[in-house]
Amino acid sequence: MALLFNYQQWLFIHRYAVRDIRRSYKKLWIIALTLFISLLLLSLTFSIKQSLNDEIQANSKELLGGDMQISSGIKPLSGEQLQKLSNIAEVSQTVNFFTMLSKPDGGAVFTDLRSIDEHYPLYGVVQTEPAGAREKLLIETGAPAVLINENIQNQLQLKIGDELKIMNTIFVVGGVIASVPDLTNSAAFGEFAIISKREFAKFDLRAASSFMKHDTRLKIAKSDDYQRKIETVQALLEDDKSIRMRLPQDSAQSLRRIIDNFSNFLNLVSVSAMIIAGIGISNTLLSFINQRNTSIAIKKSLGFSAKTIQLIYFYEILIVLFASSILAYAVGVLSPLAANAAIPESFGISLQPSFSLLDYANVAFIGLLVVLIFSIPSLYSIPSIKAAALFRNTFQSVNLHFSVKNIAYLVILTTILVAYFVLQTRVQLLTLYYFLAFFISIGIFYSVAKLLIFALRRLPAFSNNTYKIAYRNIASKKSLAPIITISLGIGLTLLLILSFVADNLKREVVDSIPSMAPDIFFVSVNKSEKEPLEAFIKNLDVDAVMEFNPMVSAAFVSINGQSVESRVSRDNRSHWAIEGDRRISWSEFPPEDNPIVSGEWWAPGNSDQMLVSMDARIAKDLNVGVNDEITLSILGREVAGTIMNLRQVDYQGMGTNFAIMINSAFADQLPYEYVGTLKSEIPSGEIQAQVVRQFPNISAIKVDRLVSKVGAIMNKILIAVTSISLIVIVIGMIVIVSAVLVQTSLRKYNNLIYKILGVDFATILKAMTLEFAIIYFTLLSFSVSAAALASYFVVESIFTLQWQFDLGLTLMLTVSTGVVTFALILLANKNMFSPAVYPLIRNE
Amino acid sequence: MTMNKSAIQFSDVTLSYGQNINRVDVLKGISFSINTDEIVSIVGPSGSGKTSIIMLAAGLEKTSSGAIKINNEDITSLNENALSAVRRQHVGIVFQSFYLIPNLTALENVLLSLEANQKYNKDEDAIALLTEFGLAHRVHHLPSELSGGEQQRVAIARALINKPAIILADEPTGNLDEVTSKNMMQLLFDYTRKQQTALVLVTHDNDLAQQCDRIIEIKDGTIV
Ligand SMILES: Nc1ncnc2c1ncn2[C@@H]1O[C@H](COP(=O)(O)OP(=O)(O)OP(=O)(O)O)[C@@H](O)[C@H]1O
Ligand SMILES: [Mg+2]
Questions:
Q1: CB-CB: which of B81, B86, B170 is closest to A391?
Q2: Is B105 on the interface with A (CB under 8 A)?
Q3: Eight-state DSSP code of residue B104
Q4: Which of A480, A733, A743, B190 has the least CB density, counted as fewest CB within 10 Å?
């Protein structure tokens, strides 16, 4: 019986709320809109992330290139190993290495060159223009073919059939690569070319082996003993420490990490947007309640309890939330289809929409938490609406209600919200800090508004009409100042921080690095070619500054006998240093600009023992120190050495810096090659062309090209990141507009009175402008200083770069935000300027 | 329902606002009792405390001292929720300014007092009552589409539909013309008598007061 009763009551609340929404949806659209936009951002994040991961999962074999990938680094697998493998599975071998591609009549690019056998690719297809160009690689008559990607085609202005020189061989361009199944970075972003394994063998590269990457991929027939075969292969190669084996589930690790980080960032932006939307919801809901205080009083006089009335309004908000979240999620689910259009073809990715009830629940739950948090103070104003007012015809507007109980609710709900986000991410501390900073910012911007009002009250009053009206508006109880500072302040600060950091990083890459860095890098310089090259360049430019360092490839195997993989987690900042082959160098003396921070440099002449000098920062991350023993695999041979000292390496110098150096006496016994740098007055393109013509085996990389490439990629990322943070500003603007809309009748009334008092329209407009200008400049002074401070910290301490303030950028961002916001405020007030104000007089 | 059953009982009720020098003593010891079948008018000059008595009886204001019983239940120490319950079960209020909910139709406004008591799907009863009040053709109209007299009839129907023990009416015809007022009051008298509902009517209209069973005259917060 009691249950039936309750059910009936719920039905009543439901019916009442639905009816109310239907009859006054116009008042709720702002809530719906802000909820929709912020939930949409969240849904997009979830959905795109899900689809990307699904796509990676579904294509994991294509991405890996087989059922198993065996990387043997700079040397190929032995004939015996290959023989055994081919008994188990279909085998395909590729070699990747960097070299120069040059046009006979000038022009050269440093390229990631892949040589493939007839089995490649084991999974997926190489897409080319014209289709099927891969087959040309296998033809043995005439000049051998090379497939190039679009970047090379554009840079060297090549067409099919053109000649291209690699090492000493002339190739013919057979086609343009659109995509390869594995997401090779250089295929997507850089310069990438494919030749046949047969042609590669003819290069007879032994000395230049340091930049080579040999991969063997296996395709195992689908059968019952699939797993057993994998295990057999693993057992077979287990003892060879220079070999790394990867299975499909490990493919695209770095891509997964990028997706993870980006979606974390998006999540934080969406929750910021949601919270600001929440401020708008709270404000709109309060005015909604105030507009209905007569109805609420009537209901109370009829004996409805405050709780029932609260439930009705809360239920209305829930319906709006439900509708907005479904719509937002639906758009989110379909978004991968739109994303496909934006993803470059060279990625070879095609996303599928994926619907998941869990994801929707996730979106709706976050929405519910935010709505709960921000509607509680508004809904709890309902008990203070008195039915007694109906007898006296006097209604006082109610305010947000913060009782001890309410505050306790808010703290609990906010904690749940924060915990929900923190627990879902891998960067928990950072997320927690973000929330902390965010809530503190809300507090600060609220205080800023209060401070402004306080200061204005203290200031001597001007008799100027414009000022008086503006002053009254700001200092009034219904002041727009707090909502403008909070909802715009946070978004603007976020945008400014990101742009300031971005701007500084970009300046570093585009301006600072080129001025310090060399013009050209040389790699793959044979021992025998070093001196002729030096002489050749001296001949071109006597004043050229060159520096050559001996170099050999080495991979980390173990630290104090413990394998590096088990010791260093993937999230470690210095994980890159132990990933695959790294270049190490040597010297009998400590490098000039690398001060030793711990231990001592070695005495020369100890050829039996490998002595190691390590980058102090990496040592700290890997938790090793002086006297620890590390084992390196150098050219396939495992060598143990003792760490003698730690150096502070300045990578920004972009000279040749080495994380690991060893003693010359020991290293001289190894086969090695040189890397070098060159700074010269002669245009780098000219030197590059001459060197490549004379020394086809040496790679000469133009630094300006490298820098502009990095600059361009960074630019794209930064534009994406800043435009996403713009969403927070947009939400802030909607919140402000809603606050203005809520106030229009009050403002209309005030302005009418001013008019009646003889204040002309121009003065009212000027007063509005002044009012906004005062609030906005106060907000700006805090926003810009906070952003400058935060970005200073990030740039100087995290990136250890020189921070600079860019006035032009600051002005551009703040002025445009201000102008747009003010335009929107005017637009929201447009009724005020129309003759429709006159009925007000008749109503009075 | 037995005769002489007490609907409202005020025992030495006082009401004051403010403290110290700002203190205003609005009611200074009011005692009276009204039975369920009685129609009583409260008269007195402006500011004498008539509305204050109605507000106290409706449980919308707290006494400073003394006790008030509604349907023999002492409401002086009840909390907000319990007062709401007393109000929705036993009290109907008619205001001078009608106070219909603007975005609900006439019918929906009337149903609201049933729904407050968790009585649902009583559309027929409400339509029947509105029809008796001559509003059959206005059932689905919004208050803004009704005349003042029609609005007040809807408000009276809303107060009566739940058959409360007491109707409190504070100058219900104050905003209406003379003819309309007369008709309106006839309606109210007829129905309260029919339903054995006590009616407390605050009015400035002497003729109207004379038609009631009893007149309570207030002056300066005391009964004279
Ligand atoms: N909140 C309050 N604080 C102080 N005094 C109040 C308050 N509310 C009402 N009063 C005073 O109480 C007195 C009685 O008011 P009440 O509304 O009951 O008078 P009334 O008899 O209904 O008058 P009218 O015929 O004009 O409606 C008035 O003098 C009024 O000023
Ligand atoms: Mg009165």
A1: B170
A2: no
A3: S
A4: B190
In this predicted model, what pLDDT tens digit does every residue of A475-503 receive, in sequence order? 888 888 999 999 999 999 999 999 999 88
Count CB neighbours of A238 within 10 A.
Answer: 10
Residues of A in contact with B80 (CB under 8 A): 305-306, 383
Which sequence spans correspond to the domains of chain B? Answer: 6-223
Per the structure block, which two tokens stand in for A626? 């002086």
A571 exposure class (CB count in 10 Å sphere: 0-12, 13-18, 19+): exposed
What are the phi and psi torsion angles at B62 (to 5°)? Answer: -100, 140
Q: Is the pTM of this model over 0.90?
A: no
* Partner residues linked to A581 by β-bridges: A555
Domain chopping of chain A, boundaries: 12-63+256-426, 66-250, 441-517+707-844, 545-679
B187 touches chain A (CB under 8 A): no
DSSP A14-38: HHHHHHHHHHHHHHHHHHHHHHHHH
Distance A312 CA to ligand 1 centre (A): 33
Contact, A553 vs A74, CB < 8 A? yes
| Architecture of the domain defined by B6-223 | 3-Layer(aba) Sandwich (3.40)
Nearest CA-CA partner of A810 in A786, A840, A835:
A786
Structure ipTM:
0.95
For residue A441 the two structure tokens come to 């910012």
pLDDT digits (tens, 9 = 90+) for A573-601: 787 777 777 888 888 778 777 888 888 88
For residues A63 and A763, the answer to whether their CB atoms sit within 8 Å is: no
What are the CA-CA distances from residue A433 to residues A264, A268, A272, A430, A440 (Å)? Answer: 13, 11, 13, 5, 10
**Bond prior to A532 in cis (omega within 30° of 0):** no
Give the pairing type, strands A192-196 and A145-149.
antiparallel
Distance from CA of B60 to the nearest CA of A (A): 6
